[in-house]
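User: tokens in, sequence out, please.
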């Protein structure tokens, strides 16, 4: 349904009139997907997958502790398709969707794939991996550094960077957000994420960084989770003139920076009011309590930095 609505919203033709050759590739892709699932079920029974999925949903709803197995008896599986991806179930779903799209030539199936892949990769899989780390500890940590998440044969991931509070929450990578903006999804992605374009302080080249933001009284507010150490922050300190892409707009601006904990805590309180679920999820990933006092917020804010971008002009 979401894929269909997205196709309608962006006026994408229902069908692209694929030739027979492309539809034949769709048949082969579907067969590959079916064989992939058969391979997967040789190493994990469907009932085990259903049990683990049910338990994960309970944990996502905070009804069960992350370390609780709740009837889950299987060990960590690292054989078969798990040698190539950490989440082969999601890889298989994406493969089947692509196959159906190529065979049936329905644009909404492509839109569904575009939506599902980042959803699996940046929302569902990270939570499951948090659960698996709690259950299997260093065994899973080592496995995660050697095997990619969903797409096989890509560069192996490294251990996730840590903050002083715990694991840093996952953030969509630069290339993905830039690609979504380039494909015309700015009005959708731009509800939460903008593209900040700075000038490299050493190279003098354009640097594009996707960042979450808030618009307050006509200005754009962006927080740096790495404080003054973030490269993009250091770039705009060296040259406060920046360009911003947000939704369907572009504009140039001048940056003001602050590390005042009280001012940053005010910004965090505003974000909590506007996006309570998202902010509490971020706090959870940082190892912080979901409900924090003003003093705790200011203590956390002392590790951040805040940028206020004052627009000079706007252009569509």
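Assistant: Sequence out:
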């Amino acid at each position: 349904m979401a894929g269909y609505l997205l196709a309608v919203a962006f006026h994408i033709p229902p069908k692209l009139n694929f030739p027979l050759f492309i539809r034949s590739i769709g048949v082969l892709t579907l067969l590959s997907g079916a064989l992939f699932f058969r391979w997967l079920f040789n190493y994990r029974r469907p009932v085990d997958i259903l049990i683990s999925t049910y338990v994960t949903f309970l944990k996502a709803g905070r009804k069960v502790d992350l370390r609780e197995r709740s009837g889950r008896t299987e060990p960590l599986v690292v054989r078969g398709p798990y040698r190539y991806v950490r989440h082969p179930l999601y890889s298989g779903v994406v493969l089947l969707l692509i196959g159906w799209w190529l065979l049936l030539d329905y644009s909404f199936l492509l839109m569904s794939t575009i939506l599902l892949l980042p959803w699996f990769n940046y929302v569902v899989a990270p939570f499951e991996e948090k659960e698996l780390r709690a259950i299997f500890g260093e065994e899973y940590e080592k496995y995660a550094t050697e095997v990619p998440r969903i797409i096989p044969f890509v560069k192996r991931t490294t251990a996730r960077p840590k903050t002083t509070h715990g694991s840093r929450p996952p953030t969509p990578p630069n290339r993905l957000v830039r690609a979504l903006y380039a494909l015309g999804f700015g009005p959708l992605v731009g509800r939460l994420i903008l593209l900040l374009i700075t000038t490299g302080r050493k190279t003098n080249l354009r640097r594009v960084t996707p960042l979450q933001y808030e618009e307050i009284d006509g200005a754009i507010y962006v927080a740096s989770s790495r404080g003054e150490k973030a490269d993009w922050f250091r770039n705009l300190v060296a040259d406060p003139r920046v360009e911003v892409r947000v939704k369907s707009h572009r504009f140039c601006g001048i940056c003001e920076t602050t590390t005042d904990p009280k001012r940053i805590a005010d910004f965090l309180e505003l974000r909590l009011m506007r996006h309570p679920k998202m902010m509490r999820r971020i706090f959870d990933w940082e190892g912080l309590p979901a409900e924090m006092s003003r003093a705790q917020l200011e203590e956390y804010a002392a590790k951040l930095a805040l940028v206020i971008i004052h627009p000079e002009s706007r252009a569509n």
